[in-house]
Specification:
Layout: E1 2-6, H1 11-22, E2 26-31, H2 38-46, E3 56-60, H3 66-73, E4 78-81, H4 93-113, E5 118-122, E6 134-136, H5 150-167, E7 172-177, E8 179-181, H6 191-198, E9 203-205, E10 208-213, H7 214-225, E11 232-236, E12 239-242, H8 243-254, E13 261-263, H9 265-282, H10 290-297, E14 300-302, H11 305-311, H12 318-332
Parallel strand pairs: 1-2, 1-4, 2-3, 4-5, 5-7, 6-14, 7-11, 8-10, 9-13
Antiparallel strand pairs: 10-12
Amino acid sequence: MRNLVTGATGLVGMHVVLDLLINNEDVKATYTKNSNFDFIDNLFSFYNKKNLLKKIEWVEMDIEDVTKIYHEINNIDHVFHCAAIVSFSKKQRKKMQNINIKGTANIVNACLENKVKKLGFISSVAAIGRKGNNSYSEKNSWVKSSDNSYYAISKHKAENEIWRGIQEGLNAVIINPGIIIGPSNWHRSSTSLFKKIYSGLSYFPKGSNGFVDVRDVSRSIIELVNSSISSERYIVVSENLSYQSVFKIIAENLKVKAPHKIATKNLLSLAWRLEAVKCFLTRKNPQITRETVKTSIQKNNYQNEKIKKQIGYKFNSIENAIENTAKYILEFK
């Protein structure tokens, strides 16, 4: 099979590329002019697969460049759409609209035009929609709520583009991962949590969320794309855990003191306001926002029975995911 992976230099995309290569598949991997390739060399070295790097066909591709997308998807069997902007900053909203929504529409249209055999889309549990503390499954319908971040809205609208493509004859499947734990650079993705804890973070929020190993995200989407399953979406969450327990496991694996103080709602409200002022002065993107504060104090529970029952998928534990990530960070930090 000929595979194309968008967002291939990101946490999920690079693991999808790696797993496809391990399966002896042909891989065309997309990158942008701002992509960081240091992470890729480190990751393949970490998994003792550096010999596979030479098998990747790299192509520079802007997700907004319709002509380029149509050209690169020509003669491709399977597309894994991993490219996305994950941000809770107001300054990034236009970019999320262009990449997460319009970019997904471009991919869908190119897949239809080129008669791609199947599209696998990496969405997010955020796209299911949130309204206070709750338990969620694939049966939940999107609910408009102030609890939904703009990122969540953008992923929901991106999913709508996939469903639109399915209505037009596209063979596609969607997965909704929780918070993804996996080897990456200090400042990227959820790995930035490891950096904060390693640097002496004292506080933990009182909420809980669904977490998943990046290796499960990669392997599950590949298994689904290679199956006869179509027009379905699956929550991909290994465990629902409190932030306190996750932070503790991270600290233990990094061999540092665990955060031990509860971040109250008032403290978090003050923190995001101070961060907003600092970022206004420095022109940097905030690390904590009103949206992230809302999420951190919610107790969300995500059910994973569907993927376990339908394809017999077995998840890695979050403890194992954190151990794997911490090992990578301590080696390449």
